[in-house]
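User: Here's a protein and a ligand (S-adenosylmethionine). What would the complex look like?
Assistant: Let me lay out the input and then the predicted complex.
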Amino acid sequence: MGLMKSFFSQTRKPEGLLGKMMLNGMNPGHAKLTDWGFGHLPALAPANAIDIGCGGGRNAGELLRKYPRAHVTAVDYSELSVAKARDYNRDMIAAGRCDVRQGDASNLAFPDASFDLATAFETVYFWPGLEKCFGQVFRVLKPGGIFMICNESDGTDAASKRFEGIIDGMKCYTVLQIEAALRAAGFSGISGDHHTSKPWIAVLAKK
Ligand SMILES: C[S@@+](CC[C@H](N)C(=O)[O-])C[C@H]1O[C@@H](n2cnc3c(N)ncnc32)[C@H](O)[C@@H]1O
């Protein structure tokens, strides 16, 4: 495997030295996208929120800042991501407001109806079957709970096609594909937005 392929493949599941290097850039690299995504959330006062595929943990940190009364759980299947997200949110973990767990989006180890809000930034590309994983998110959300997906690829842009060719198992989805999978998983009130000048998308859905 070429070095470029090995490095970019770390976005799917950071591991080893290259994974550490990738994770070091992830929080700053995705900050603008995720801040744009957060602007789509309606007025909410969640008691419990979950960020799935949390990477370096900044998004969980932003949820904690945006919702000062919320407890935030961050989940990632990469041991390195979990360690990085724990370090990033260590003060909030010590304060009892945050929990970072290793786990897979396709089998979320939480009881039904645990969360008021779920977010997934730059991660659904790698989930093993959108419908199945969205079904898991649906299950762990409370009735009325909100799920937001935010990607810097709209599934049609040249960069996403290039990365699909480099990173095994990566699939960039269009808003329509994400909306269809959300509907199939049981969600309603689905709305998608596209950035005015970039291929960024945010899709919101309600349980
Ligand atoms: C490109 S990074 C994005 C991280 C973070 N959400 C952000 O916006 O910076 C993708 C993350 O999703 C995680 N991931 C991919 N598939 C996953 C799955 N099935 N379950 C849990 N985490 C997953 C990866 O380990 C990685 O940390």
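Summary: The longest strand covers residues 141-151.
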